[in-house]
Amino acid sequence: MDPLSLAKAKVTAAPVACSGAAPVYDLTYYLKGALAGGLCCAITHGGLCPVDVVKTRIQLKPEVYNMGMVGSFKKVIAEEGAGALATGLGPTVAGYFIQGWFKFGGVEFFKIHLADWAGDEAAWRNKTPIYLLSAACAEFIADIFLCPLEATRIRLVANPTYADGLLTAFPKIMREDGFVKGFYSGFGPILFKQVPYTMAKFAVQGKAQDMICGAVGVDLSAPGTTGSTKMAMALSSGTIAGVAAAIISHPADTLLSLVNKSETAGGTGSISSRLMNLANEMGFKKLCLTGLGARCVMIGTLTAGQFAIFDTIMAATGAEKFHFHDPTKP
After folding, report:
1. Helix (H, G, I), strand (E, B) or coil at 277
2. Which end of the chain, N or C, is less surrounded by CB atoms within 10 Å?
3. Residues in a beta bridge with 18
4. Which tens digits make up the pLDDT trace of 53-101?
5. pTM (2 decimals)?
6. CA-to-CA distance for 268 and 286, rounded, in angstroms?
7. Are 239 and 300 in contact (CB under 8 A)?
8. How far apart are CA 24 and CA 9, in angstroms?
């Protein structure tokens, strides 16, 4: 069966009770999930653009921005003005809306269909593997669309005088470097960064949410669960997931920033040889730790906000979010 036909099919795995009827997971549900995902990623990444600018500066020029996160903020503002903290805002919002559309929408699609294929009992026992596989598949698709815009953002942050913004930088990169070299030199690092990041993000969030709910006696699938309770669960589990995902994906994030700094970063050879050169120059310790504090703050806040906004938008559209169902309970 083709994906569109699967999307249109009614999926009954892990029903969430609502007026006695199981929800229908059809194409409309996945579109609502994709829209909620696009908005939650665009809003959070856009709102944290100043932190991302400082984090990227620390990664690209650690010898210049060596006074920590707060000190680097002050340095950027003192030397370039507060407006410099919004550098790359255009490609950030556009890129992460597209990425969020495919990531959150894709995770819902793959998660629900894998759970339906496995059956309630097996899906309940294998929640973490289902989260991991769903996140990996969805993120791979999302990164194909994100990579050109992330390359544009990094070029603007690395060289604020390169162009005025997305609309002028995008064609300039295309003209100077070509499509593949200009926009997909960082595709390997972005996969290496984003796929483990998203796998950890969704798997850890799911596990943390289960543990927190179990500790406080909350059942998110129960009809009487309040919106404030769901919000509290999303924020707390999202923060834990964000910090874990940031640590796991940070070395690749640093490499991605370095390889997109300029067309000659790491040499003029193949993409793999440039990445190896950059990794050797940076060293493993610096690759793992440079800018990590700023990224943990950014990703922890961002991930908590994403899950909270996603749940809010899904509820506002009338979509009943999918939850795994314990077959031993009615």
Report:
1. helix
2. C
3. 21
4. 888 888 788 888 888 888 999 999 999 999 889 888 888 898 889 999 9
5. 0.76
6. 23
7. yes
8. 9
